[in-house]
Amino acid sequence: MSAQRNIWLGIGCGLLAGAFWGLVFLAPELASDFSPLELAAGRYLAYGVFALALLAPRWRKVAAHVGRREWLALSGLSLLGNTLYYVLLAFGVQMGGVAMTSVVIGFLPVAVTTIGSFDHGALRLRRLAPSLILGAAAVACIGWQSLRSAAEGAHPQAVLGFLCAAGALASWTAYAVLNGRWLTRLKDVSAGDWSLLTGVATGAQALVLAIAALVITRWGHEAQAWMRFLAVSAGVAIFASIIGNALWNRASRLLPMTLVGQMIVFETLFALAYGFLWERRAPTPAEGAAIALMLASVLTCVSAHRKPEHAHA
What total number of domains does the chain contain? Predict the structure, then answer.
């Protein structure tokens, strides 16, 4: 019963993390006057400031469990899961649209689950095959629509946006796997504190991004645009980075990698819902098929984990 409770608690944490993370896909639209580099710098500077403020009263106690190896890992994880990932994602949204980018990122469950199947004691890949096939089919639906639109000239930047989204997919897949393994290894650091420490490392990297943004981009924005930019940066930092990451870390500790990968689908589903509301439209047939396939992929994976491994005997 305890294991079952952990599974459902982990699924709940994954679902809530997805609801908060889905907001990330709207940020480039809400602050479209700013480049992806500026958006990433603003979000992660805010993430670093808020994380440092929350850790400050307990800094010595938390830092006592974090050595040189952990800080190096946090820097790498921050780059893969935050800085590089978000820049590529923002480019994907601005050039290919919210729906296309969010569904490409929806391929994350397939990638993470496949890698997780090689962990010791994980479900065999053949047990996960139905879920992986459904997830891959979901991405194929939206990828076909994106490439077709570009070929017809409706969205000439759609292919480049698709490639940026694919790069974001690769970056976050590496983060999800490595972060999950570090959370398993570190017993003395809570999921929330690991998220805050990641924020501190990400904030340091965001300083470099801010300098690059100052050099590369033009900052001739109006006061109203700046206020919107600051509000979006702060909102995404609090809800998506601090709260969402803490929930994800909790799910990563409660669920096996082969199941936690499927929780990323909730980010895609919420991002699609937010995107359709923002664009005031219904999903296309290809997007509707992709949504149905993603839901079927999650349900199939959960069902596989609830069945005993020796059921075939």
Answer: 1
DSSP state of 25: G
pLDDT digits (tens, 9 = 90+) for 22-39: 888 788 888 888 887 888
* Structural domain span for residue 161: 2-306
- Assess contact for 65 and 189: CB atoms under 8 A: yes
SS3 category, 163? helix
Residues of the chain whose pLDDT is less than 70?
1-4, 98-99, 119-123, 142-143, 145-156, 218-219, 306-313
Residue 39 token pair: 């958006």
Query: How many CB atoms lie under 10 A from the CB of residue 30?
Result: 17
Closest CA to 160 of 147, 148, 169: 147
Give SS3 for 310. coil
Instruction: Please state the pTM of the whole predicted model.
Output: 0.80
Confirm whether 56 is domain-assigned: yes
CA–CA dist 185, 228 (Å, integer): 40
Residue 49 lies in a domain: yes
By the 10 Å C-beta count (0-12 exposed, 13-18 middle, 19+ buried), 130 is classed as middle
For residue 72 the two structure tokens come to 């190096």
Say how far apart CA 52 and CA 62 lie, in whole Å.
Answer: 12
Six-digit token string for 231:
């509000």
